[in-house]
Amino acid sequence: MPNLEEMTAEERTKAEYSDINPGLEVNTDDMVVVKEHSLEAGEKIFSFIVLILGTIALKLSVDLWFSIPLRRGPRIASAAAVPVFVSALWVVMALWTVIENFKLTTPLSKIQSTGEKIIKAFQYAFPLNVLIMLAIIVAYCAALLEGVSFYIATPLFLYFSMCYLMKKDYVKNILWTAIVMAFIILVFRMLFSVVFP
Fold first, then answer.
1. DSSP 8-state secondary structure symbol assigned to residue 20
2. Using CA atoms, how far apart are residues 7 and 14, in angstroms rounded to an integer?
3. What integer best gives the mean pLDDT of the chain?
4. DSSP one-letter code for 68
5. What does the pLDDT read at residue 87?
6. Contact partners, residue 132, CB within 8 Å, separation at least 6
């Protein structure tokens, strides 16, 4: 190993702090390296939701497996065995993730109130831009359900989405909307004969 005097400041830092947990704060003369939390806000709850969805998928796939006629019965070679295997693997991996995640910290770990944790996690997961885009998507779906033509609702949805997200180039967005609509019509309507609502 080279002498500490011959090393650069960065090499000295790496040599001195190579075994330190990245979750700790490291102060050196030249820099401050900080990684406060291992997970983002709401990541623990998300892993728990994935586990719940996996459990539901496992139950449905087991029901499918046992719905095979009794004369053949559930067998490993049946087609229904694949969903059982995949959903069981999903549950095992999700459970492992939940257990591992609960050992780690998030920006919400220091907050005591459950209600405040939920509000902060919701604010992190759904900032204003995401909420507005979700509202635009819901309005688009509602327009289609109410019988507005696909050829009217989709260009409006595309144009207003682009205008909101980019907040400039309003004239260019008309061109982009036309290009996307032409592509959708040519490929899906004419080539694949998809019937639009």
1. S
2. 10
3. 79
4. S
5. 93
6. 164
CA dist 103 and 101 (Å) reads 5
Look-up: residue for tokens 């939701």? 49
| 47-71 per-position pLDDT tens digit | 899 999 999 999 998 888 777 665 5
- pTM across the whole model: 0.52
| DSSP 8-class letter at 97 | H
Cα–Cα distance measured from residue 183 to residue 159, given in angstroms and rounded to the nearest whole number = 15
H helical segments located in the chain: 9-16, 43-66, 81-101, 114-125, 128-145, 150-166, 170-184
- How far is the C-alpha of 6 from the C-alpha of 24, rounded, in Å? 27
CB of 78 within 8 A of CB of 65?
yes
Q: Is 20 exposed, middle or buried (0-12, 13-18, 19+ CB in 10 A)?
A: exposed
